[in-house]
Specification:
It is a single chain. This protein has about 375 residues and is an alpha/beta fold. The chain folds into two domains: about 210 residues, Glycogen Phosphorylase B (Rossmann fold, 3-Layer(aba) Sandwich); about 150 residues, 3-Layer(aba) Sandwich (Rossmann fold), CATH 3.40.50.2000. Helices cover about 35% and strands about 15% of the residues. It contains 13 helices and 14 strands. Helix 2 packs parallel to helix 3, helix 3 runs parallel beside helix 4 and helix 8 crosses helix 12. It is elongated, with a radius of gyration of 23 Å. The C terminus is likely disordered.
Length: about 375
């Protein structure tokens, strides 16, 4: 099996980075792994493992990402003797093109129609959420890129049951299913593969923060509007009015940081709210906190919720991503609701959450399931009758 991956993550080119190391691990699962990366800088084509190749688009503007990625991908596929370009040839081959972004889905679909390669659509974002499409024009366009992707995919990989349920309800039919007579997407071409987390690293971590507060609330994520950190601050303000000596630690960075700092200043809570910036290793922060609050308007997975539960602290969150799967205390998207749950938790009036069981015993199990998600694209073998 040969895989052509379409990516927007330029960290793949960083030697020693976790992203590049992950690509090398993925490469060991396939005969060949070719990764076309949407880039604007002057990156250089590289061979990072014996069978893993990375190709930059090096476009001056994002407007040309599509054409450059398609041109590079076409050269890769044209170099294979077993592939003969045939417009709208839907016969499967040993090649699978995988994409997890709306903008890369368009290239993947064109490659499928042009070369007859199989198309795996990966979904790490709950684009079916009512919040997603309304957030911005950009998200409205991304929404349709995701929809076209799932409608034309030969197999689908998602990272949480929340996404699975949303897609199964709203987008049950696809082009591939119409051709094969299959039913909804929960059939054999569809796989849920949660993101891998280093469990032992989190369990073995030591607390990293001093204990200036009697009760510490933790928030982790990108400081962008979709993550809705301002809601966590509003909820914390209400909680702190009734409970003395409590603190909020915010780990992350982004375009909203200055606005959020001004929000804290307006409440005169600078002594109770700590902005740490982004941290590459936050396992020790989980061990220093009493609860994690997640406030995203939508979430594909929610790794911070998984990591917090592995670390042994409870989670308060709306019903987004893996919140229900990890046994979070579910709150509404409102400061009143989150504050109320925080107050009840602090007063020990809530039942203790059940012990969270992480879905993988080791990385090998994760990689095996990851590879299986690609095999779901392959057509079922024909049954040969006797006689």
């Amino acid at each position: 099996m040969k895989v052509l991956m379409l990516s927007t993550d330029s960290k793949i080119f960083e030697k020693g980075s976790a992203v590049q190391a992950r690509m090398i691990e993925y490469g060991a699962l396939f005969d060949e792994l070719h990764i076309v990366v949407y880039t604007q800088s002057d990156f250089v084509r590289e061979k990072i493992a014996s069978n893993v190749f990375i190709y930059p688009t090096n476009t001056k503007t994002k407007l040309f990402y599509f054409w450059h990625a398609y041109r590079i991908s076409k050269k890769i596929l044209n170099s294979q003797k077993n592939l003969q370009p045939t417009t709208y040839n839907l016969q499967p081959t040993q090649w699978i093109v995988t994409s997890q972004e709306a903008v890369t889905n368009l290239v993947a679909m064109l490659l499928k129609w042009r070369f007859g390669v199989l198309f795996q659509a990966q979904f790490h974002t709950d684009f079916a959420s009512s919040y997603f499409k309304k957030e911005s024009l950009k998200n409205w366009l991304r929404y349709w890129g995701y929809v076209w992707g799932i409608r034309n995919a030969d197999c689908v990989r998602v990272v949480s049951r929340k996404i699975a349920d949303s897609l199964d309800t709203k987008y049950p039919g696809t082009t591939a299913e119409l051709a094969t007579g299959r039913g909804k997407i929960q059939d054999t071409r569809y796989t849920t593969v949660p993101i891998f987390v280093d469990v032992q690293k989190i369990k073995n971590a030591k607390p990293i923060l001093p204990k200036p507060f009697d009760f510490t609330v933790l928030w982790v994520g990108r400081l962008e509007k979709e993550k809705n950190c301002s809601l966590a601050i509003d909820a914390f303000v209400q909680f702190a009015r009734n409970v003395p000596s409590v603190g909020l630690v915010i780990i992350g960075d982004g375009s909203e940081r200055k606005n959020l700092e001004l929000q804290v200043t307006s409440y005169k809570l600078q002594d109770n709210v700590l902005f740490t910036g982004w941290k590459n290793d936050i396992a020790g922060y989980y061990k220093s906190a009493d609860v994690l609050v997640a406030t995203s308007r939508y979430e594909g997975y929610g790794m911070q919720m998984v990591e917090a539960r592995i670390a042994g602290i409870p989670v308060i969150a709306p019903d987004v991503g893996v919140a229900k799967e990890v046994g979070a205390y579910i709150a509404e998207h409102s400061a009143d609701s989150i504050s109320r749950v925080l107050t009840q938790l602090h007063a020990r009036k809530l039942p203790t959450p059940k012990e969270y069981r992480y879905p993988y015993e080791n990385k090998e199990q994760y990689l095996a399931l990851y590879k299986q998600s690609f095999k779901q694209c392959l057509p079922a073998p024909l049954e040969v009758g006797r006689g």
